[in-house]
Each structure stands twice: as structure tokens, then as C-alpha cells.
Amino acid sequence: MLSDIRHDNSPAGQILRLLQHQGRRSIKEIEAELGVTTTAVRQQLTSLVAAGLVTADTVREKRGRPHAVYNLSDKGHELFARGSMDLAHALLGEVLRLGDPGLAQQLLSRVSTRLGRRYAEQMHGIAVQERLQDLAAWLEVHGIPSKVDEEADAFVLTEYGCPYYGLAREHREVCDMEIEAMELALGSPVTLCHSQLDGHHGCQFQVKKPSA
Q1: At how many degrees (to 10) do helices 27-34 and 38-50 cross?
Q2: pLDDT tens digits for 42-84?
Q3: What's domain 84-208's architecture?
């Protein structure tokens, strides 16, 4: 999983940590730092660039041929942004506690729009079921075990974890924010059938199958 790369000792993980600690590096510099072959470095960098975790830029020196240098992308930096989610939750919680319903609703609407766009970026399928599977896979990578089941007239996404659990216990409108984000990403109505806040084992979101 991408979320584990920063911790493991795989070649990809070592390259990411090297770029995090030392900034942009050429293939030769990475090879020398890690003690691996040029071919191995190239293979890992190709995968990391394809995953959007690393950027490649061409440098033209006064002498010698142009060469590529590699650095963490914004997405790569996000892997190491520990605590950012806790901070975001804390900020959201403080706004919800201000006692201004209009301001809180405006904030939640903006967050759901941003979250919906982020979800949509992870969905490569066209059919609703495919897009739900893409979303479930993304949630898994981000530490929320999820699965998609098919019923007679609907698909059901079950999340066995809630990134907003503590906040949602005080403010159930956070659940509406999640629903709106899914609806934006899927382009279909979403219904929260079961919630962990009500004692269920997981939150279940139902999406009706398109009419034939």
C-alpha cells in the first residue's frame, strides 16, 4: 500500500525517504546514497513517477549532457504529512462548535465538494459498481477497510472504520458531508443505511442500480 511505503525498507520506500530528507537528486546520486544499481533506481523511479509520488525535471548544466533530477511531488509530501488529518479534524470541530449554523453548513458544503472531487480522481470505472470498487480500494489504502456488495436493486459500500468518528459523534452533519461527497463523485444518490454511531459494525452506503 502507498501509505506503507514511507515506513518499509523497500527500494521505493528508501528513495522516497531519501528525497524527503535531502531534496532533489539525480539517478547517480540516488545510486551512490543507496548502494544499488542504476537499473534498479530507474525502475523504482519510473513506478514512483507513474504513481504521482515523484516528479522528474531536466537540468542543463554548463558542461555535460542534460540530465534528470527527481523530487517528491505534492502527493509524495502528503505521505509524510503525519498529523495533518488530526489537525483538519480539530479545525473542523472548532468551527462546528462556534454555534453559527450558517457558517458551519457553508464549511461542510465546501469540504464535501473538495472531498467529492478527490474521490472522483480515484474512480476510473464508468459503471457505478466499478466506481464504488475504485473508491473502496482507495479507502483501503488510507486505512479504512471497505468492501462493495451487490444486492437485488442496489450496491452497498461498507466502511469498517470512520475517519471522523469522534467528530461525528458530536455532529452528525459530518455524515451528511460524506454522503454529499460520494454523490458528487458517483453522480448518483447515496443513502446511509447503517452507521457505526448507531451501534452497527460499519457504515453502509447504498446506491440504487440504474434503471434498465
Answers
A1: 120
A2: 999 999 999 888 999 988 877 778 889 999 887 777 666 544 4
A3: 2-Layer Sandwich (3.30)
Q: Which of 83, 100, 164 has the alpha carbon at shortest distance from 192?
A: 164
User: How many CA atoms lie less than 13 Å away from 121 in the CB half-sphere?
Assistant: 9
- Domain boundary assignment for the chain: 2-79, 84-208
Domain 2-79 fold is Arc Repressor Mutant, subunit A (1.10.10)
Burial class (CB in 10 A: 0-12, 13-18, 19+), 150: exposed
Nearest to 128 by CA among 210, 69, 55, 194: 210
DSSP secondary structure string for all residues of 69-105 = EEEE-HHHHHHT-TTHHHHHHHHHHHHHTTS-HHHHH
For 105-151, how does the pLDDT look when each residue is reduced to its tens digit (9 = 90+)? 888 888 889 889 989 988 988 899 999 999 998 888 777 888 999 99
pTM of the model: 0.59
